[in-house]
Design brief:
Strand order of the largest sheet: 4-5-6-7-8
Structural class: alpha+beta
Low-confidence stretches: 1-11, 33-37
Mean pLDDT: 86
Order of helices and strands: EEEHHEEEHHEE
Strand content: 15-25%
Number of domains: 1
Radius of gyration: 18 Å
Helix content: 25-40%
Length: 201
């Protein structure tokens, strides 16, 4: 079970809280919502995923226009979550975006884990359309220094240690990715090197 993240409002999605513990929250569908009748119980993560899908659908159907960089960035992060989770990865980083107008959090956009073949971990940054990685005199967004300074707070101590151990035993098990979400909704992945630049193949 995964604790519900900020920005998730289950009631508006037709869910009712049925159990809460230090571990997480469980929801069930509101019996008054005909569209959701017959469904099973949902975890907080599943509720968040449904809210992401609803927000994405609203944009891609033309119902909602992306008005500013905040909305474009949040749309991109939600698309990235859906992209990796559809491939069997689990998001292990905090701060899942579930609304277009959600306050932008500083740090790594998403860290994902897969129990299957390498890469086991993906550390990813989402950029909408032509937006670029940030750069200062001392660091570049997604270079190894920038990532290491933010990784522990993104995933917690245990997962941070798991990632560090995985990098030592098999360097190919951890990859950094730039995930570009095009204006038409298409998703393009590019692997990044130690300095945060795209690896040209």
């Amino acid at each position: 079970m995964t604790p519900m993240g900020k920005g998730v409002k289950a009631g508006k999605l037709g869910f009712k809280l049925v159990k809460e513990s230090p571990v997480g929250k469980w929801f069930k569908t509101d019996s008054n919502n005909a569209a959701l009748k017959g469904k099973r119980h949902y975890t907080a993560t599943e509720v968040a995923q449904i809210q992401q899908q609803n927000a994405i659908k609203s944009v891609e159907s033309g119902k909602t226009k992306l008005k500013n960089n905040q909305q474009k960035g949040n749309y991109g992060e939600m698309k990235m979550d859906v992209h990796y989770e559809s491939q069997g990865y689990n998001r292990i980083s905090k701060g899942r975006v579930t609304k277009l107008d959600q306050k932008i959090a500083q740090g790594i956009d998403g860290v994902y884990e897969d129990s299957g073949p390498p890469p086991k971990f993906i550390i990813a940054e989402a950029k909408y359309n032509k937006a670029q990685l940030n750069k200062t005199q001392d660091w570049r967004q997604m270079d190894n220094y920038w990532v290491q300074r933010r990784l522990r707070s993104a995933v917690g101590v245990k997962k941070y240690n798991d990632i560090q151990k995985s990098m030592v035993t098999n360097p190919d098990s951890v990859k950094k990715k730039l995930v570009r979400i095009k204006h038409d909704g298409n998703v393009v992945e590019k692997e990044l090197n130690t300095d945060g630049y795209i690896i040209k193949k």
